[in-house]
Records
---
Amino acid sequence: MPEHPNRHTLVSMESLRAAEPAILDAIAAHKHGVELFVCHPLRFLREAGFEVGAALERELRAALPLDRLPALRYEDVAAGKATPFGSPQVRVRVRLTGLGLDEVRK
C-alpha cells in the first residue's frame, strides 16, 4: 500500500471526521483503495498509516455492520483478484467523495 504522508491518530468520531480528507486521499492513492476500505475499513486505515484507537474501533464496530461486510480476503482484494462490486474480471472504478460519517452515530 502506498505510504500516506499524513499520520493521524483516530480516537473518536470527531477525529475521524477531521481526518476524512486524508483518509479519502489514502483511499484514492491505492489502486484498490475503495474496495479495500469497503471490505476491511479498520485494516485499511491501519495499513494506510492511521492509528485507530480502541475506543473508536469499539464505536465503529457498534455503529457499522462490519460483520456483514463482504467476506473477501484483504490480500485478494489488494491484488485485484476479488472485489465487493461483482466480478474482478469486470473493471469497475469507484471514487469516494465522502465517508458517509453523517450516517454514523455521533
---
Amino acid sequence: MRTAIVPQCKAINVTNASTEFGLTLMPNIDYVIVSSTAAWIKQAASNPVAVAGDPANMYIPANTLIYVSGDNGAEIAIIRDAADGKASIAPVH
C-alpha cells in the first residue's frame, strides 16, 4: 500500500522581522496564504528574506487570499507592512 504525503498547514506571527513559515512547499502543489495584517512575502528555493516595500517581494493586503505554487520555490518568508498580525499557509486541494 502506498501512503500519500499530504502537505501541512502552518500559522505564524507576522512582525517587523522577516519570518519563514517553516514549511517546505512541494512542487506541483498550490498553496493559499492569508494574513490578518498587510504584509510582504518572499518566495525562494531556500532561506528567503522578506523586506517590506522591496519590489522584489509581493505585497499582500490584509485578509486577502493569495495563491502561490510550490513550483516557484520551496520556502516563503513574511514581514508586516505596518502592524503585527497572524498569517497562515495551507495547501489547496
